[in-house]
Amino acid sequence: MKNIAVIGSGVMGRGIAYTASLNGFNVSLHDINPEALEKAESYITSLFQKSVEKGFIQEEEKKIALDNLTYSTDLKKSAAEADLAVEAVLEQMELKVKIFKELDEVCPAHTILATNTSTMSPTEIGAATSRPEKVIAMHFFNPVHKMKLIEIIKGLDTSTETVEKVQRVGEQLKKQTVEVNEFPGFVTSRMNCLIGNEAMNIVMEGVASAEDVDKAMKLGLNHPMGPLELADLVGLDSRLRNMEYLYQTLGEKYRPSPILLKYVKAGKLGRKSGEGFYSYE
């Protein structure tokens, strides 16, 4: 397991690419959008430089990691020698299935296909391929280079060998892993979405401000980040997609808060749009 193809150069994809290249993997970061790929390359290069300046890594480590990285808009080229392909695109099942069908065609027979999903079914995704035993979910957390966990979710047909190989990849990435049997929302998203949704309801009902809700969770329950700060970081549109999926699959308690719907309709998506539950200058 030396070569990793990362599909999608957004926040999660570029974070996975950075972390994997720093930990000795040859990484090809793919995106169909050349501008998005350029932004990802600029971000990753800047992050390496900041890591050197802050003393987290040495200059030589940065050079080696940058040499391990390539960028491509050609999926076939990116995946041609991949031992592991990690898809990191929007939480939309149709899009993920489409990408996995393409990966199934262009990847070598031994390649493990992983989806970086926080809620969706690796069984359903794997069923669209000729190698469901090699399909798995690897749920990374944002920011990838700082967060210590990877949730590993095996589908109905995922083999034990695939799980073990992905666990070893997690170890090489210097992450802790938890193994989860597939169920909508897995472990962390089920818990996190409920907490965040209730926080939104509290703000909507006028019980407390967003600032005080987050302060209470951080100081009273020792959360490192408030649930509304986290929702803004993830993106309120992404959070809404997750909530809608969980609502469809798990029922009423996951009904999205009306204030979340309102903010997304207004284009208030969190940090990426400049405004969500907080304003970002």
UniProtKB/TrEMBL annotation:
Every 3-hydroxyacyl-CoA dehydrogenase NAD binding domain range: 3-182
GO annotation (BP), single: fatty acid metabolic process
Ranges where the 3-hydroxyacyl-CoA dehydrogenase C-terminal domain occurs: 185-280
Highest taxon in the source lineage: Bacteria
One Pfam family per UniProt: 3HCDH_N
Record: residues binding NAD(+): 8-13, 31, 91, 96, 118, 142, 272
Pathway where it operates: Lipid metabolism; butanoate metabolism
Keywords from the UniProt entry: NAD, Oxidoreductase
Residues spanning the membrane: none
Protein family according to the UniProt entry: Belongs to the 3-hydroxyacyl-CoA dehydrogenase family.
Protein name (Swiss-Prot/TrEMBL): 3-hydroxyacyl-CoA dehydrogenase
Biological source species: Alkalicoccus saliphilus
